[in-house]
Write a structure and sequence with these properties.
Blueprint (H helix, E strand, L loop, with lengths): L1 H24 L17 H25 L1 H4 L3 H33 L6 H21 L1 H10 L3 H43 L27 H24 L21 H13 L1
Helix pairs in contact: 1-2, 2-4, 2-5, 2-6, 4-5, 4-8, 5-7, 7-9
Amino acid sequence: MELIERVEKRSTVGEWLKTLDGLLRGDITRPSALRRGTIDVPLDGLAMMILVLGLLYGLCMGSYAVSNVGKIGPQAYLQLIATTGKVPVLFVLTLLVTFPSLYVFNALVGSRLSLGAMLRLIVAALAVMLAILASFGPIVAFFSVSTTSYQFMLLFNVAVFAVAGFLGLRFLLFTLHRLSVVQAEEMKKAEAAITPTDAGDNAAEPMGALDHLEGTALGSNITTIFRIWIIVFGLVGAQMSWVLRPFIGEPSHAFTLFRLRESNFFEAVFHVIAAVLR
């Protein structure tokens, strides 16, 4: 009985990995896979992948504190544990804060995506974002153990988060475009009372997750609205990281789980850049 449960569990994890791979390769976001008006992905599986990938990057990010254990002391290991847990928390809290505005924006522009479809879309985008972030983990760990510059590691991690965020949100916008194109085509087919095979389906063509889909483009108002939301998501995520700091652990400071509320993320980054350029 235990052996059967282990096999089923292993199969489930394998399916989650397969789903993530399908998102990255664009298999799950091809037009043929979006005919039902949503992304067919398991929310529980993607949530677990987001958690694991976030923990992996947090572990690499927190390795800076351990590599400077002589300066920080034994509390460096507490910083490592805190950082490991904070990364997935950062993305979950940012999603909770921004998801209501995304749904309202979606409704305002007349999109026919349901609440469930929108949730699946944003969770899929977060999974892509965390996969990109985790792929940078070994590089972040390498620089963490090969440099003692706290300011450099701050800016380097900000840059990594920016790249992952940009690509993840670009995936969101591209997939939203594909869903809108597919929905428009399906409506035309229904009105013309023709079969799907008569409409020149282009789903058989190989297509990556960030490839542009030819067809009816999103209206300018829809594109503008969702680009505004992407900016909102980025701003909230940046400030959320400031609220949850420290992530790396400054060698000259004793360990603390959270620092006092002061200043803001963007002012702090400006001061760090100024310090590095001196």
